[in-house]
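Changelog excerpt

This revision adds worked examples to the README so contributors can see how folded entries look when concatenated. The first example is reproduced verbatim below.
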Amino acid sequence: MAGINSSSAWLHEHVNDQYVQMAKKEGYRARAAYKLLEIDEKDKLLKLGLWVADLGAAPGSWCQVAMKKVGKNGRVFALDILEMDPIRDVEFVQGDFREEEVLNRFNALLNGRQVDLVICDMAPNMSGNTVTDQARSMYLCELALEFAQEQLKPGGHFLVKVFQGSGFQEYMKAMRETFATVVSRKPKASRDRSSEVYLLGKQKKA
């Protein structure tokens, strides 16, 4: 068995390296770009002219993907507690998503208009304590859902990274109350050993 495990571990790392190499080659800031690209290929979320809010955007690979897809008539608004090097045409607010003042600054960019799509690849700083990390992660997901409930136009979509564990089923239930359909996605670029999945809420209810 040990031989099988070590060879599969090698293969696993090799596959993951492939995304790192591809990101370098294709100019994306992180391998996470391929998660969004794969989900978008399946679900056709990003279209020309859309307004997109990217929560937890740094280092910016999802913004890069979104900006290419929405084109010059679209808008991408990004928010993160971390610094992010500028990306052409992406409007960025640096600050803590949990603070009202930061959210107000972000909302000011939208200038009263609701967005077509909210994407969120946020994760808390991991402490190594599974219970604490799960609670922090779910809290960020809840804030992202609240943001989508307020800032997403009817019929709009919401894509969020969620870690499976305590609170997951309750979160799915809350999403189903807001969206006509909720589906789960596990893109190939998502590490097998990670409990992360992406939940996609389609067609926000009026």
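The second example, added in the same revision:
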Amino acid sequence: MTIRVAMWSGPRNISTAMMRSFGSRADTVVCDEPLYAHYLTVTGLDHPGREEILTSQPARWQDVADALTGPLPGDPAVFYQKHMTHHLLPGIGREWLGRLTHAFLIRDPEHVVASYAKVRGEPTLEDLGYPQQAEIFRAFGGPVVDAADVLRDPERTLRLLCAGLGFAFDPAMLTWAPGPRPDDGVWAPHWYASVHASTGFAPYDPRPADVPERLRPLVEAARPYYEELAAHRL
């Protein structure tokens, strides 16, 4: 039976590197941000590659849910779904989520906000996805890993994560070939340059985050949600 892993992450995290890690397993297929087209359709946001995204994925969340929970060619042992928490809009039904095995990739909001501010000047709490991440965790639970822990000690953290998901760690998860992958979303040319150049997780950077003063209130608004999940991290 396939274990369907829904990995929920906010933006400006190591979510694509984590997808690479799981995609390096011989027994795993991966899916890249399957709710992105629905998110753009409902919000009307003009993201890079918008038209390509809208034609590459179903725009109805019901169709996405059916694909994520339905039959899979080849019956892989693991179906890894890279999800952005802010894509889970209020109008999306939640019942189908009960058929997935959930996991959570968190990052300290100081670092998320500092990074996000470089690409969008005035992010909101909903843009960062912390409330949505907490909502999913409260409803379904699942293992939690912090990006800082992954980068400090990838093997230890991934071993714990795999155990929490119900399957064995594979050393192949620690390295991968550089370049694009067929399972990358069509938006990859706009966002994945650093991952395409990588062959494994980047070293942990201990430098403090440089948060613009005007965005300090946003960090403080996000912090309770982060700390709620961080209390359960592996």
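Reviewer comment on example two: The chain has one domain: 3-230. The longest strand covers residues 3-9.
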